[in-house]
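Pasting as-is:
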Amino acid sequence: MGQIRDQLQNLTAADIIPSQLSSAGGKVFVSSNAIRAQHDLQAVVQFWRDVHAPTYGLPIPSTGKSVTAQDTEAVFKVVIAPEANETLYLNAMSVTNGDPLNNADIEVKIGDALFAKLTLAGNATTVLIGSGDLAASSVYITAGQSLSFNQNGAGANQVVLAVSYSKSVQG
């Protein structure tokens, strides 16, 4: 194991994969003779982490999704709910009232807290997260903080909440 750096010397940090670290590192023994080799392996793993592992709060690549939900009843409809030990990064959200005749009174909640409350005219869309007059910046939600919404006034299935999100690195 003392030659771990020699085994990986022809690779860049971007080229190294975890199985190569495991193969080059071999077995790890807890003895005073292995301290130097353990420090070498620790330094190489940290070097790899600096290149490959995202830091807290950043989106995890290839986890982005977009979902839409229609309000069908006079109760709050859950749009997304993170699972245990999961953090979601909401980076865009909009609501559309497709009813051409009626305004919609809309409430959006994160957990039990009111995130947005507005009246939206018929055949209109407003941005809740992103760029717009009412828009907030991106939001993180974790297990126990589902995103839900409700509307009154517009016809059934006429109001749609759209959300774009990704999973986020946790600390």
